[in-house]
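This part of the workshop introduces the protein records we will be handling. Getting from the letters to the tokens is the skill we practise here. An example says more than a description, so a record of this kind follows:
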Amino acid sequence: MTFNCDRIVVFDLEATCWEGRENFHKYREVIALGACILDIKSLEISGNFNVVCKPIRSEISEYCTRITGITKEQAENGEDFGDMCKMVMKDLNSKSIPCAAWGNDDEKMYSECREKQCRYPFSNEYLNISLLYSLVMGKPYNNGLERSLAELGLKFVGEKHDPYWDAYNAAIILKHIVEKCREAV
């Protein structure tokens, strides 16, 4: 299958979480997906996909609500995970263009899709923006999204841990990397 590389879907996930090391073993389930499109030619960011989905194996903790802003009520009224995947495929044509995220969100999505027996909503052409940033900037470690933006003289736009805004800010970093590469050529 060939891919149109004029655009790239940048996405982010939020998952159930709990405070404290004693909860480290608990199953982290996707509860929200946010995405936008970075046009590689114009470097414009468009699209606003932001959907909360209903967890079936875990619950929203108070800590999770503090971090993500997603309440138990929002999650209970959220979309079915499989329906959310269909929505992003339809709204952003996400199967036919490369995808990217800050970190390994693709692995979590693959795992969740297998477990819930639904189609993975993105192409297999995946770019880890965090890894690319670390390589380009000569960093031996992942700095985190907000700190990486600050290193570039940029501020985080929107609300932290909102999957759309996390995706949007990751797209800003990818845009910056593409601009710098174009300047160097």
User: Anything to note?
Assistant: The chain has a mean pLDDT of 94. The two ends are 29 Å apart (CA to CA).
